[in-house]
């Protein structure tokens, strides 16, 4: 029988607030997905952010965990991060905006051809790369602002398509003396955003052109079925080692700072051999010769003998004369749940995949009690304990819910008849036709036929 509801103004307000909250969550999710779609940073000459990650700059805040996330609207200098928040790309990492003549480590460079190298942790369709530099007489003890910079880029590279993960190109850096800041801007093509990196450079003194010595004694220290651990002896450099880059089978797979001489490679295939080498780089991005190569082999796969946990909170979402609509909470597993098995008493009713948490049991008799349980299983065939047992009684079958009405407000659990089928609402709805809004993720679900 269809239940009727009258909503007073306070309930309407709650529904509106809840709906607004859902819209906000959706909007934030969409924004995050968009903002997280492309990331990258300048690592040659080393940017302020990457020197923070590598421990050369200190007291940097959270940027040490994500130097690739300095993202803000594109269009600088007419748009983009505000004055005083240029280094942090809008203020998300405020420590980067602290500015003085001595606050940040500086990379020695000379005027003329300079190679700028980017590491793109997510390769995104690109519109351009642009580079700006501070004026000769800028104030290094004042917050970075547009007034600090020559607003005509000294290098502008149009680009079309998706760049490689490690992208480099050469620009002519104009003549300066002393401490200057270069602003590097990577403009994304198909979003409204760009990535902003500042590079603290020093034009005094000779350029550092001496590379570090090669790391030595690279060795495998441990291996599992999916990881290989490495260690090596540190390189030396006339100025200082900034970072080590680790290569697997010739491909760059990781970077650690210049004080770290260990690395763990993860996500590997079992019973497989891999060849590793390590190179060192200094602040001026001079790269050492390759280290010795070493081969590591992962161990055989470990048999999976751990069963999933039991599914939880088995309950029904509605009954008809010949069906019960079941729902349960997910089980967990050390590898992954591959399927759920639904039982009526001791009889297996059906099996659904590990991402499905609902099932409509059909073919039942009217006015009859049934007890259901659900089990989880993994790919290795390990089976969980049973869920809680849930007993449900089918309806008598003498009546059908009232026909669906476009003006009726339906709440979770309310039922309606449409074209000979019984539909049940999953949440608040009005004027959503059942046959167009049915299925696992829509408002209505089919729970049976109207006798």
In CATH's first tier, which class of the largest domain applies? Mainly Beta
Listing every helix as H and every strand as E from the N terminus to the C terminus, the arrangement reads HEHEEEEEEEEEEEEEEEEEEEEEEEEE
Low-confidence stretches: 1-38
Rg calculated over all Cα atoms: 31 Å
Number of domains: 4
- How many helical elements? 2
Biggest sheet, open or closed, and with what strands and sense?
A: 6 strands, mixed
Spatial gap, N to C terminus: 14 Å
Number of strands: 26
Residues in helix, %: under 10%
The percentage of residues in β strands lies in 35-45%
**CATH T-level topology of the largest domain:** Coagulation Factor XIII, Chain A, domain 1
InterPro entries: CBM5/12, CBM_sf_5/12, Cellulose/chitin-bd_N, FN3_dom, FN3_sf, GlcNAc_Chitin_IntDeg, Ig-like_fold, Ig_E-set
Protein name: Chitin-binding protein
Subcellular location: Secreted
Pfam family, one: fn3
Question: Which features characterize this protein?
Answer:
40% strand; Immunoglobulin-like; carbohydrate metabolism; carbohydrate binding; 2 helices; 4 domains; disordered N terminus; signal; mainly beta; 451 residues; Coagulation Factor XIII, Chain A, domain 1; Chitin-binding protein; elongated
